[in-house]
Amino acid sequence: MSHHTVIMHKPTKDDIYAYALSKTLTKVSSPATVGLYSECQNRINMILRQMEVNMKRETLRIEQEHTKKPKPRPVPASVTCFFALIGRMLFYRPIWTVRNQQHHNIRFIYVHFSAWHFAGSDLLWAGIAMRLLNAMQMSFGKLQLVLYRVGQHDEELEVQKKIVEDGPRDWRSKKICCCPLWSLCLFILLVPMVVLVVMLTFGATKPELEPGQGGNSTASKVGVLEGLFIAALGLPAASAFRFIFQMGKNLIFSEDMNLRSGMDNEKISSQLGFMSEVRKEMWFLTRFLQFMEVFERRRIRVVLKITNLDRCAPKKIVAVLDAINILLSEEESPFISILAVNPEVLVQKVNFADGVFSKEDRAYALLNCIVTLAFTVPPLSDDSKHSLFNSLTRDSTEDGLRTRSLRNKSSSDVSLVEIVLANKESKPLIDKTTAAVDVNEEEVEKLVRGILSNNERKLDRYMVDDAMSMRRVINAIRVTVIIMKALKKELPQPEHIAAWVVLANEWPCRLSWIIQCQEDAQQRAGIDGEKEANADESKTLWEVFSESRAELYVMSTQIEDLLDQDGDPEMFERFLKVDFKFTVKDLKSFEEATVNLDHSVRKELAQIRGTSRLKDSGWMRDLAPLPITTVIKMKTEDVCEELKRLEYPDKYNDIVRSNNLSGSALVFGDAADLKSILNMTLGEWATFRLHFLPHLPSHLRPAHRKTSATLPRPQNQLSRLYAANHHSSNT
Questions:
Q1: What pLDDT is attached to residue 327?
Q2: How many Cβ atoms from other residues are within 10 Å of residue 134's Cβ?
Q3: Contacts by residues 393-397 (CB-CB < 8 Å, ≥ 24 positions apart)
Q4: Alpha-carbon Rg of the chain, whole angstroms?
Q5: DSSP β-bridge partners for residue 108
Q6: Taking a C-beta distance cutoff of 8 angstroms, is the pair 59, 106 a contact?
Q7: What pLDDT, in 10s, does the model give residues 402-429?
Q8: Euclidean distance between CA atoms 461 and 450, whole angstroms
């Protein structure tokens, strides 16, 4: 009996994250910008690939479940649809109705923009428009775009407001002198033919004329026919020639060639008119996609995947972010931008860019103005790292083809199962090798609607009066629900899900600090062998924050950019202390689903605080500074015991007791006063300061912080010109 082996793996966490992101993108309204954040470029690429697969699968499922008529047209278009499209472009104009603006079916067009490929150009943002034009030509055909530009596009309509009607008709015929254009063209083509047939028919039945008269009669008939043809075809022929000339011109000299030449020509690219031309092309693409939506009877969304932006220079990064904010964020724009970057590198480079002066110009504020869904890929767990290491070890011993195949797989939580089946029981298992993630959409929608439509919630007072922030919260709630259901976690109360999303959105620095403090406490307990330290999961997050906020206050001068992201501190206290008393247990249940919290914030806090604490014993204890959190918690007697252990004279213990120098007094007191009171020698004071007061040196401040002598960052070429003139006038 023969056997065969089938390798199966359960959905990884990265698969679940890609699935949740794809399900959310089918629901969000455009324009939208997704911040896909991760330090590992391989994980970003894998999630983008898997997300595209899931979105195609989702659109196919939606169309299969849609039974209402009329059904959407097939993609790619058939021959019949191709000629129907040409007829619509030549003789009709679309009518914007309530029905065709709310199609149930959807189609995604994926455009990959690698910023590194255009990094050599000074106008990196113009490369986005050129890449989109090329992608539209590949998706719909160059002839269709040119035909729409000549037969439908009118730049004067840009200033007019889009009127949405309520009616059953989707098309309105073009008219000339109250006559439909198609009927006029048909009349012009048929009349000469009918006249020619009539003239030839009746002319052939007449009796022959006497010699000398036939020539004149024939000549007169020919003259009449020529006159009819010239009269009937003269003006239409001129119009047709003009139409054909414009078609040929646009086919030969395409707009992407014009944009490319403008990017290469410094004299042209430095003019304000070049940005206007780029903006007009983006508006043209928007109108073309709206036309195709009516024709195909489905929504069309362009997913622009922006990668490798963090490899570019700071100035060009800011230019691309401005392009996303200006070119791709118009009210009717059908674009969904995915900004796939390493957030830590991006933040440092943007803050280092020229002209970063005000708070709004800094990286976090700039991203908050652009991103409508922040999706941070959580770091790998210990099991995920173990699986990844084993897979890479196996790859190194196999042939190259096998190696390339395995490296394209997910890099987290891979669980391989070997199944041996009898030959007679074996069936095609190609679709079962990868378990697909599936979540009941009706349950998700019901839960999300219940969260968003609850009229008795306490959450309203904590919402910021900013539409962009509200959109981030709504999208993040949907993603969180999908991830928790896909991970088969027990869902908490609906309002608590929304509250956790708002907590991460409104106070990212303080929540990251709480998470880091809890993680450090677990690490410390593991080092000290305290097995029962993690048992108390009923401890509230406010208690965790209260125990360490003095240390956070000491660090405040080093994390100004991070604290600027947070909202009102008093509202934060009310949030955790009164309305939503989240515990450590809640923190652990939400940990894997908290994707709207930037982990680079916690990483920076961990670097400043010191995630790997030195054990408080041995030779390192005498040389290394005490952690600030340890010093703050020390009482007067604890300070005396530490001085005794460091072999200081007993007189210093008497001074500490007489002046009640606790740990808080040492941290928040003035260094000069302490030195005067203790009256130590220079060597003793140097050791004391290093051991008890590690927060005093100023070299711990971030190296990327800039002086205030820079100009505000220009938002576009117009503001760049204004900034230059303003600077010269001040000089």
A1: 78
A2: 14
A3: none
A4: 35
A5: 301
A6: yes
A7: 444 544 544 444 433 333 333 333 344 3
A8: 18
Residue 723 corresponds to which tokens in the numbers above? Answer: 């900034």
Residue 727, token pair as written in the block:
């600077």
Q: How far apart are CA 566 and CA 264, in angstroms?
A: 43
Residue 604, Cβ density class (10 Å: 0-12 exposed, 13-18 middle, ≥19 buried): buried
Within 13 Å of residue 70, how many CA atoms lie on the same side as its CB? 13
* C-alpha distances out from residue 534 to 91, 521, 523, 525, 537, Å: 73, 9, 10, 8, 7
C-alpha pair distances (Å), 332 with each of 95, 157, 283, 329:
16, 14, 9, 8
Query: Strands, E, within 547-661: which ranges?
Result: none
Q: What's the fold here for domain 626-693?
A: DNA polymerase; domain 1 (1.10.150)
With a pLDDT cut of 70, the percent of the chain lying above it is 69
Long-range contacts of 381-389 (CB under 8 A, 24+ apart): 381/13, 381/412, 381/413, 383/413, 384/12, 384/13, 384/411, 384/412, 384/413, 387/412, 387/413, 387/414, 387/415, 388/412, 388/414
Report in angstroms the alpha-carbon separations of 721 from 27, 91, 321, 616: 40, 45, 19, 58
Q: For residue 576, what is the DSSP state?
A: I
Of 9, 172, 29, nearest to 93 by C-alpha is: 172
Determine the pLDDT at residue 428. Answer: 41
Rounded to a whole number of angstroms, the distance between the first and last alpha carbons of the chain is 90
pLDDT for residue 694? 67
Crossing angle, helix 41-65 and helix 13-25, to 10 degrees? 50
Q: Which residues, in sequence order, are CB contacts of 662 under 8 Å at separation 6+?
A: 634, 635, 636, 639
Alpha carbons within 13 angstroms on the beta-carbon side of residue 586 total 20
Res 616: pLDDT: 40
583: which DSSP letter?
A: B
Instruction: Establish whether the linkage from the previous residue to 76 is cis, with ω within 30° of 0.
Output: yes
Q: Where are the domains of the chain?
A: 75-207+217-301+311-334, 626-693
User: What pLDDT sits at residue 305?
Assistant: 93
In sequence order, what E strands does 256-365 have?
A: 299-307, 335-341
1-41 pLDDT tens trace? 444 444 555 778 888 899 999 999 988 888 899 999 988 88
Give the pLDDT score at 259: 61
What pLDDT is recorded for position 380?
76
Extract the residue ranges of the chain whose pLDDT is less than 50. Answer: 1-6, 204-206, 209, 214-215, 269, 399-404, 406-407, 409-433, 533, 611-621, 623, 697-731
Quick one: CA dihedral 476, 479, 481, 483, positive or negative? Answer: negative
